[in-house]
Amino acid sequence: VQLVESGGGLVQPGGSLRLSCVASGFTVSSSPVSWTRQAPGKELTWVSTILESGDTWYTGSVKGRFSISRDDYRNIVYLQMNSLKPEDTALYYCSGPGSVRGQGTQVTVSS
């Protein structure tokens, strides 16, 4: 199992980014895939999950702003992030079976 995240960057408050998680070694439609994040000096926290059924779940602070989705053909999971806030600044990871994580992609929200 391998996961590779990309799409992070520097964005102004109110801006948008779309993160991608390219999966190999398993199919994203057959396992829950989650996004987590770790802000500087803080613990890793859960952000969102997409289940095999396609059902999606979000932590309260991102509901209505973030959207998780997947492309079963390309075996990619996305995290669309809108209305970004400075407190969304963190290293974002995706995780799959066995809690395997990628190397992360940095998101910085700052003016």
Structure description:
By secondary structure, the protein is an all-beta fold. It is built from no helices and ten strands. The chain has strands at residues 2-6, 9-11, 17-24, 33-38, 44-50, 56-58, 66-71, 76-81, 90-95, 105-109. It has a six-stranded mixed β-sheet, with no helix packed on it. A four-stranded antiparallel β-sheet has the order 1-3-8-7, with no helix packed on it. The radius of gyration is 13 Å and the shape is globular. 29% of the residues are buried.
Q: Which structural traits does this protein have?
A:
mainly beta; 6-stranded mixed sheet; 111 residues; 4-stranded antiparallel sheet; globular
What is the overall pLDDT average?
Answer: 96
Order of helices and strands: EEEEEEEEEE
Compute the number of helices: 0
| Global structural class | mainly beta
Q: What is the 3D form?
A: globular
Biggest sheet character: 6 strands, mixed
Low-confidence stretches: none
Outline of the structure:
The protein is mostly beta strands and 111 residues long. The protein has strands at 2-6, 9-11, 17-24, 33-38, 44-50, 56-58, 66-71, 76-81, 90-95, 105-109.
SSE arrangement:
Layout: E1 2-6, E2 9-11, E3 17-24, E4 33-38, E5 44-50, E6 56-58, E7 66-71, E8 76-81, E9 90-95, E10 105-109
Parallel strand pairs: 2-10
Antiparallel strand pairs: 1-3, 3-8, 4-5, 4-9, 5-6, 7-8, 9-10
